[in-house]
Amino acid sequence: MTHSPRVLVLAGGLSHERDVSLRSGRRVAEALRSANIDVSVHDVDADLLPALSQTRPDVVWPLLHGASGEDGSIRDILDLLDVPYVGTGPRASRIAWSKPVAKSVVARAGLDTPDYVTLPQSLFRELGAQAVMAAVVDKLGLPLVVKPSRGGSALGVSLVRSATDLPQAMVSCFAYGDVALIERAVEGIEVAASVVETSEGLRALPAVEIVTDGPYDYDARYNPGRTEYFAPARLTSAQAEAVGATAIAAHEALGLRHISRTDLILQPDGTIQFLEVNVAPGMTETSLLPQAVVASGWALPALYRSVVENALPAPVV
């Protein structure tokens, strides 16, 4: 392509994570403009499809968090319109969006993931909440992590150290979805490992270590001060290499494309536990992927431009 690619960043939407999406979109647009790319930002509304038809951007970058941005639906629409876009296709997005399904896929690929159960809210009503919770604690033990089976930004996530705290954790979880993923909490170093795909192929960025005063929930993620980040993570070179290899293995097993962020726990015995993966990672000033880019020594504008160029359709020969 002789001209600089024209990029349309999608940000906003109607999910619980609208504010984060708007901040992500603004940051990416600023970086792309710094890389001399013609970029505009559009919300997901009734004006979007006419705008796509009229402007025909070279690439769309969906920076939508939550349901429509990560469950494959907006990507289905872009495929219907034959508009190239940054990121994973719709089918793989749907698999990654469902945390239990993603865990089963990576487990089949040989990765470790904490033991878990997936239970709908209706089951608690039908069988009696106390009996169900007692069975969960009896089987999985404590501590537990309770989270919506779908969703991002740690909304509705609770760390449960005592059985008496489980009812409130279930209430918090069901406020954001009607199916809960309850998994054994594993101790260790929590890291976020980002993978980017450029013209040189897949590359694992330096992992970012997350140290927080409690659960790494929505407030801890987006309000500076609650959480301390180490970018790169305080790992040995062997540990860092293993974490990066695990993130790439998850990216490939799930059929992801261009960009992803995998959340992992490195246990004291060296086992790396897969928690979840994100196909539309946050790009705000406190988000993990941008921190990883900076830790790699790669300038954000240059990396984002490389990702965009890799998403362009191959020229017809």
Descriptive report:
- This protein has 317 residues and is of the alpha+beta class.
- The chain folds into 3 domains: 82 residues, Rossmann fold (3-Layer(aba) Sandwich); 138 residues, 2-Layer Sandwich (D-amino Acid Aminotransferase, Chain A, domain 1), CATH 3.30.470; 69 residues, ATP-grasp fold, A domain (Dna Ligase, domain 1, 2-Layer Sandwich), CATH 3.30.1490.20.
- Helix content is 40%, strand content 22%.
- Strand 8 and strand 9 form a beta hairpin.
- The longest helix is centred in the N-terminal third of the chain and has 17 residues.
- It is globular, with a radius of gyration of 20 Å.
- The model has no long low-confidence stretch (mean pLDDT 93).
- This is D-alanine--D-alanine ligase.
- Belongs to the D-alanine--D-alanine ligase family.
- Its cofactor is Mg(2+); Mn(2+).
CA distance, first residue to last residue: 12 Å
Strand content: 15-25%
Judging by the overall fold, what is the CATH architecture of the largest domain? 2-Layer Sandwich
- Mind summarizing the main beta sheet? 6 strands, antiparallel
Query: Could you please say which CATH topology of the largest domain applies here?
Result: D-amino Acid Aminotransferase, Chain A, domain 1
What's the number of domains? 3
| Derived structural class | alpha+beta
What is the count of DSSP helices, taking H or I runs of 4+ residues?
A: 13
Blueprint (SSEs and pairs):
Blueprint: E1 6-10, H1 18-34, E2 38-42, H2 48-55, E3 59-62, H3 67-70, H4 73-80, H5 90-97, H6 99-108, E4 116-120, H7 121-127, H8 129-140, E5 144-148, E6 158-160, H9 166-174, E7 179-184, E8 189-198, E9 201-204, E10 208-212, H10 218-222, E11 227-230, H11 237-253, E12 259-266, E13 272-278, H12 288-296, H13 300-311
Parallel strand pairs: 1-2, 1-3
Antiparallel strand pairs: 4-7, 5-6, 5-7, 8-9, 8-10, 8-12, 10-11, 12-13
Helix pairs in contact: 1-13, 7-8
